[in-house]
Amino acid sequence: MKAAVRHTYGPPSVIRIEDRPRPEPGEGEVLIRVAAAAANPLDWHFLRGAPRVMRLQSGLRRPKEVRLGQDVAGVIEAVGPGVTRWAVGDEVLGSCLGAYAEHAITGQDELVAKPAAMSFAEAAGLPVAGSTALQGLRDHCRLSAGQRVLITGAGGGVGHLAVQIAHAMGAHVTAVCSTGNVELVRSLGADVAVDYTREDVRRTTEPFDVIFDLAAALPYRDLRRLCTPRGVISVAGSAKERPMRHLIAGALLGPFASQRMPIFVASIKHSDLEELTALVDAGKLRVEVSRTYPLGEVAAAIGQIETGRTRGKVVVTP
Question: What span, in angstroms and rounded, lies between the C-alpha atoms of 258 and 191?
Answer without folding.
Answer: 27
